[in-house]
Amino acid sequence: MPAIHRRFDYSVPSALEQQIRVGSRVRIELHGRRVAAWVVEDDVLPADGVSPKPLASSSGQGPPPAVVSMAEWAAWRWAGPMSSFLGTSSPIRVVRDPGPPAAGRDRSRGAGEGPPPATPSPGGGSVDIVDAALAGGSLPATVRLAPALDAMLVVLELVHRTGPAGVLVLAPSHTRAAQAADRLRASGLPVALMPDRWEEAASGRSLVVGTRAAAWAPVPRLRAAVVMDAHDEAYREERSPTWSAVDVVIERGRRDGAAVVLVSPCPPVSLIGTRPPVTTSRALERRGWPTVEIVDRTHDDPRTGLFSERMARLLHSVLARSDGRVVCILNRTGRTRLLACTRCGALARCDRCGGAVAQLEAAGALRCRRCDETRPAVCAECDSTRLKSLRIGVTRATEELSALAGVEAVEITSGSDPAAGAGARLVVGTEAALHRVPSADAVIFLDIDQHLLAPRFGAGEETFGLLARASRLVGTRDRGGRVVAQTRIPDHEVLQAAARADPALLAVPELALRRTLGLPPFGALAVLRGPGGVTFAEGMRAVPGMAVSLADADRWLLRASDHRTLCDALADVPRPAGRLRIEVDPTDV
């Protein structure tokens, strides 16, 4: 049941026998009310002397049995109610059951689903990449493609080999999912775009395309799956339970023996820890990235603000053309306050993990919010004790850039009108602008150190993802596209990896750091929040193999060697009466 998160036994009246199966949505009588529920098990024998109530009615189709089983696994994996995942995997409107499949016909595979063997490959240069990706057998394959290279060629080549039936394609946004669906239809393939075409997806005959929720598409049996931009944060559900569409697709592929291909220009280390990524030649990869310029502001006076002379020259040169467009990024929300030395301008960073440090209330001390290391409030470069806070809001930056460029600037944040920025030549905003603007001649990160030094262990990978997104907006270096990053840490591995078009320059040190600190993929994390966290944390502390620490005033961090240890403990320890939020695989630690 959705509200109570419990299972109840009911009998199936003869009038509903042909409509009810595992996954069906039904109405039941409970305490004098009719409420919604799902059928999650069949052929259950009632206890002696108990006569179950009959189901009140059928509410149409729900997820197939394989997806119901996945929902049970996900409830364990992300410590959430099974009903939450059943709701995500159900149609948005009532879909009536067409009845049992015709005799001798397998609904999971459509007739004529694959192309003739002699059909020429539509995948262009992706043939070798798909060959290498499929060579790993049941292990998911990570394909590293530069931002300007066409990931849809990988999809087309994979579908050419398997046929469209049972193939799932995920995209990080509705716009990209719709574009992928249109392109696949133009190739003559049957496509079910989720969530509107839920019934077609359930038939098992169409290629299924969608965003995060489509990881739960009602495909009876998965034959292959492609996740485009697998690094994108959009694949993670922010509400509790905090599940990941990438992990759901990987588990579905493992259960069904399906090929799973994860495509990304900058795959996170959690996806390449067990199997090296498949990629193109270095020459082709370099051509797929734009020119990434690093503006070193190490010796600039912090009082000069965000706008360097080099950035100003680029701004004027692009906007001097009547069709030139510049996007400037400044993230003001959800980031730590940066401290810089007033004498030499060096940023105050953690000696252990390289993260940003914040001033403690106790005089003369700095603390890293990423690994909790503390040190004296002294500049590591020149021993000065005078530190200055660096911050400016995006609204103020928009006003100043408009005056500097002599062009009206448009501000874009996550709360802006979706139509904002259409046709604007100068856009200033948070990272939301990278998803609202279709193309640009240059993208300038006014202060990329806010991203690099954010108090999260995944800050480097997230920043690389932003650079990749910006690179897709400006195109290749042959086209003249440019991405500019202003920084006081020009040697940071993220910036060097982007400038040299070589993601391995980040992956190698990132893996080493996480291994040292026991962070994913070399450990499992969860965060507890809310009044019930105290009691639950004490219960978790008693479980062998669990480490519990107080991260903030109302936040507890749980650490384990692997997800099985962590998730078993989360399932076994009784939940307290107070409000409790459990976030497995947190991104803000």
Gyration radius (Cα, Å) is: 26 Å
Number of separate strands? 25
The whole-number mean of residue pLDDT values reads 89
Strand residue content: 15-25%
Assign an overall shape. globular
Quick description:
The longest helix is centred in the last third of the chain and has 16 residues, at 459-474. A seven-stranded parallel sheet has the order 6-7-5-8-9-4-10, sandwiched between helices.
Keywords:
589 residues, alpha/beta, 19% strand, globular
Describe this structure in words.
By secondary structure, this protein is of the alpha/beta class. The protein is 28% helix and 19% strand. The chain is built from 18 helices and 25 strands. A 7-stranded parallel beta sheet has the order 6-7-5-8-9-4-10, with helices on both faces. A 6-stranded parallel beta sheet has the order 11-21-20-12-19-18, with helices on both faces. A 4-stranded antiparallel beta sheet has the order 23-24-22-25. Helix 6 links the parallel strand 6 (191-193) and strand 7 (207-210). It is globular, with a radius of gyration of 26 Å.
Task: List strands and helices in order, with pairings.
Elements: E1 25-30, E2 33-38, E3 57-58, H1 65-77, H2 82-88, H3 127-134, E4 141-144, H4 152-162, E5 167-170, H5 174-186, E6 191-193, H6 198-203, E7 207-210, E8 224-228, H7 245-256, E9 259-264, H8 269-272, E10 278-279, H9 282-287, E11 291-296, H10 309-319, E12 326-329, E13 338-341, E14 357-359, E15 365-368, E16 374-376, E17 387-390, H11 394-405, E18 409-412, E19 426-429, H12 433-436, E20 442-445, H13 449-452, H14 459-474, E21 482-487, H15 493-499, H16 504-517, E22 524-529, H17 533-541, E23 547-552, E24 555-560, H18 563-572, E25 581-584
Parallel strand pairs: 4-9, 4-10, 5-7, 5-8, 6-7, 8-9, 11-21, 12-19, 12-20, 18-19, 20-21
Antiparallel strand pairs: 1-2, 1-3, 13-17, 14-15, 15-16, 22-24, 22-25, 23-24
Helix pairs in contact: 1-2, 14-15, 15-16
